[in-house]
Amino acid sequence: xxxxxxxxxxxxxxxxxxxxxxxxxxxxxxxxxxxxxxxxxxxxxxxxxxxxxxxxxxxxxxxxxxxxxxxxxxxxxxxxxxxxxxxxxxxxxxxxxxxxxxxxxxxxxxxxxxxxxxxxxxxxxxxxxxxxxxxxxxxxxxxxxxxxxxxxxxxxxxxxxxxxxxxxxxxxxxxxxxxxxxxxxxxxxxxxxxxxxxxxxxxxxxxxxxxxxxxxxxxxxxxxxx
Length: 226
Prior knowledge:
By secondary structure, the protein is α/β, with parallel strands linked by helices. It has one domain: LmbE-like (Rossmann fold, 3-Layer(aba) Sandwich). It has 7 helices and 7 strands, in the order E-H-E-H-E-H-E-H-E-E-H-H-H-E. Strand 1, helix 1 and strand 2 form a beta-alpha-beta unit. It is globular, with a radius of gyration of 16 Å.
């Protein structure tokens, strides 16, 4: 098995539900092999206290349905990331604590402002936490993938089929976000995007597309092969 498969997978989500839409199938697949999967939510995607607590409960349920080992909420205010200090330091701390072998962040060309900020902070945190210029660097992250949510990737470097149990788990995780299902129809959105990727690029009914932001291993990873 590839060396990246022996360390945790960490996904950094700008808002709860992004993890399901962009990489829910991959997370479910990896979790099923016994690899620790950690989801970090940068914002809560809500502005009121009551809505925030409800969204966090839904995110915890979605994480369980994907088989995630852990879920963390950083508590930054949605739609205002560029005006808040501390995001980079918090993400560095996450990487130093978890030592991920694979890191997933929003891809570079996401148009949503929060997604763009998380992409930049995630890339910088990965570099800073593992740099030999610091006294106790974290292990090098073998693979950094960019996932899509609001802005489709123009030229995916990797399209991974989502089928079988992983497809079921992804659909159930999306359904956990009841408010977003009713408000935005995220279940249908995830299914539609996945169907397009599957038919056009992966030869399957559903798939997820990624950019490769950084890679020190051979692709595809052994744990990602069908």
